[in-house]
């Protein structure tokens, strides 16, 4: 077989449709567009999203402002004032103890915040602490341990 013997398989090559080239072509007169109307005209299309004058979907939806970080860590928040109220001096407070007392839910990390006063020495084990919470716990003679 030589290069000049090569040709495509039968049926692989088709002629393009030639619109508007006479009635005998099968695509003459209206060229497959029908008789009248917007879609029969040159340039007769509507822009993407146009709904015939009805308020378009993109305008009916509420505007979404800003950015939502999909990797944001969600914490349950506990204040040092609450810990001071609920626990005795010298208590060791962990996330499991907080769950047992009904202060937090399971499987969500806990962050201790510095709202309120603490005057007892408590050892607090939590996933995170605010700077003010850590300072208040240590000033009261306790320990803030990151779990």
Can you characterise this structure?
The relative contact order is 0.11. The chain has a 3-stranded parallel beta sheet. The protein has a 3-stranded parallel beta sheet with strand order 2-4-6. It has a domain of 71 residues: Ribosomal Protein L15, Chain: K, domain 2, CATH 3.100.10.10. The chain has 4 helices and 6 strands. By secondary structure, it is an alpha/beta fold. It is 18% helix and 14% strand.
Keywords:
single chain, 147 residues, alpha/beta, Ribosomal Protein L15, Chain: K, domain 2, three-stranded parallel β-sheet, 4 helices, 6 strands
Write the layout of secondary structure elements.
Blueprint: H1 57-60, E1 76-79, H2 80-86, E2 92-93, H3 95-100, E3 110-113, E4 123-126, E5 128-129, H4 131-139, E6 143-146
Parallel strand pairs: 1-3, 2-4, 3-5, 4-6
Q: The CATH topology of one domain, please?
A: Ribosomal Protein L15, Chain: K, domain 2
Largest sheet: 3 strands, parallel
Level-2 CATH architecture of one domain = Ribosomal Protein L15, Chain: K, domain 2
Helix/strand-derived category reads alpha/beta
Proportion in β-strands: 5-15%
Short description:
By secondary structure, this protein is of the alpha/beta class.
């Amino acid at each position: 077989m030589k290069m000049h013997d090569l040709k495509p398989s039968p049926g692989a090559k088709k002629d393009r449709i030639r619109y508007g080239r006479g009635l005998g072509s099968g695509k003459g007169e209206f060229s497959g567009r029908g008789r009248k109307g917007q879609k029969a005209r040159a340039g007769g299309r509507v822009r993407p999203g146009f709904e015939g004058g009805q308020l378009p979907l993109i305008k009916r939806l509420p505007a979404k402002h800003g950015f939502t970080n999909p990797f944001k860590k969600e914490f349950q928040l506990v204040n040092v004032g609450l810990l001071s109220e609920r626990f005795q001096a010298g208590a060791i407070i962990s996330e499991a103890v907080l769950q047992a007392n009904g202060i937090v839910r399971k499987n969500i990390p806990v962050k201790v915040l510095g709202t309120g006063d603490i005057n007892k020495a408590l050892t607090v084990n939590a996933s995170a602490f605010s700077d003010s919470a850590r300072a208040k716990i240590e000033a009261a003679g306790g320990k803030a341990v990151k779990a």
